[in-house]
Amino acid sequence: MIWLFLKEHAQWFLFYVLSLISLNGLLVLDSGFYNVSILYLNSVYSVLFFFFIGWRFLKDWSYLKRVENQSFEDLDRMQSPYMSHLVERFQREYAQQTNELNQMKIQLLEERDDLLAWVHEVKTPLTAMKIMLEQMEVGKLQTRLEHEWLRLYMLVDQQLHQTRLQTMEQDNRLERVELRKVIANEIRSLKAWCMEKGIGFEVEELELEIVTDTKWLSFILRQILSNAVKYSHANSEVHITMSQQQGNWALHIRDCGIGIAPEDLPRIFRKSYTGSVGRESTTATGMGLYLAQNAATKLGIKLLVNSKVDEGSTVTLVFPKQNEYMKLYGM
Questions:
Q1: In the chain, what are the domains?
Q2: pTM score over 0.90
Q3: Is residue 111 pLDDT above 70, yes or no?
């Protein structure tokens, strides 16, 4: 309180020092004051000043104590005219900023709804294209077209989940999920791409049920598996295994691909970060792992990545125990 008071009224002390210098200069230079005691005048002046400072300190201290014990409604009656003017100015500025912020929020929500509507509209012709591709004669052209269709579908799917990610808590449904079925569905969706590159999957027994949100878990696995296929060497395998880590089940997805440079590893979950490998490809967006990490965090899943250049990468999903899910969502 004392230090705050000194900072608030520093100009008073400066005025006191300057006044004292002026007074002593006048006493020394003016011959009419030769018989006046300089020490006496300085003492009287200083005592009066510090009496005033003490009175002012007690008044400010009492005011702050009353402010701390009063409600916001009572503070208006305790303000000085200057303080009331400042408060009114701040209130007008705050109201203006709040109004602008609300307008921006409304605009953002409208843009998000428009984007969601656009994504759903795009999915309709994509579904029609998929049906036509399935009716085509099997061959290299069909495989190539299915691969390009899959790339387009993945981009639309990424955009859809990126838009929904901010409100993910409102779009959650926790249920018991058979991990094997979810992984099988995602592998099946990558069939055309895998056939084109000669990529195979070696999956161990995954007879495990976990409590999570099926849709968002599928999205996370989709990003990881598509990266595994994209960066794997041709005619190689992706290995999917399970283990236990400190009582938690962990899912490991290991590819035999180009790997990730050590300097890129700490930054792979950053938004739009493509790394040294991604810069060589025009198809890399740097959004897959960023979105997967954000969705996993909201589901209580830990996402870990280990990688060595030219040896491949291993992505690990550590699932929380059921009671940890209950705490996470207040169930």
A1: 2-78 (no CATH), 174-329 (3.30.565.10)
A2: no
A3: yes
